[in-house]
Amino acid sequence: MKKPSSFVTAALLAALTATAIGASLPATAQDTDAASDPAPRAMRLFERFDTNGDGQITEEEIAAGQQARFEAADANGDGNLSAEELVARAEAQRAERIADRAERMVERLDSNDDGLLSAEEMAAAGEGRRGGSMFDRLDADDDGILTEDEVAEVAERHRGGPGRQGGDHGPRGWWGRN
After folding, report:
1. What is the pLDDT of residues 44-58, one digit of tens each?
2. Mean pLDDT value across the chain
3. Which residues of the chain have pLDDT under 70?
4. Domain residues for 138?
5. The pTM is what?
6. Residue 130: left (phi > 0), alpha (psi -120 to 50), or beta?
7. 4 with 86, same domain?
8. 159 Rama class: left (phi>0) / alpha (psi -120 to 50) / beta
9. In Å, how far are 120, 133, 135 from 147, measured between CA atoms?
10. What's the CA gap between 60 and 42, in Å, rounded?
11. Does any domain span residue 78?
12. How far is CA 69 from CA 62, 77, 94, 177, in A?
C-alpha cells in the first residue's frame, strides 16, 4: 500500500487542526466539553475521510471527499462554484453546526429529561460553569459591579491577547469544515 505523501499528511493535519479550532456559539450555548477538547471533532473529521472504515486515510479518500463536497456545493451542476454557491454552502454548514450544538446542549442541560430547557435549567447550568455565573466570572474584584475595564479584560483574553494562549488561529479552510 502506498504511503500518503508528506503534502497529504500536512494537509490532513491542517484540516484536522482547522476543524478542531472551529467557531463557537456564545458562552451560554457553547458545548464546554467540545470547546476544551478538540479530539472528538478531529475524530469525526477522520471518520468522514476514512470512507472505507479501515482506520487509514488514503490520498484517494481525501480526493473523493473533496470531490463530493465540491459537487454538493455546485448547486447548478455546472462544474464551477459561484460566490452564491459558496455562501450557500457555508450557511448550510453553519446551520448544521448550530443545530448539532443546540442538540448537545439540550441533552447536557435538560435535568428533567423533557427535551426542553427551562429558565431554571439554563440558570443552573450557568451557575455550574467554570466556577460560577457569567457575571461572577466577569466581576474580577468581586464588588458586585461590572466595570468597562473588567469586560475589556475578558474581551482581550477571548481575542487571544495578553494572558491567553493560542491567540489568532488564522483562517479556517473551506474543505476542512463539517
Report:
1. 888 888 888 898 989
2. 74
3. 1-38, 126-132, 160-178
4. 115-159
5. 0.48
6. left
7. yes
8. alpha
9. 27, 16, 11
10. 19
11. yes
12. 11, 12, 15, 10
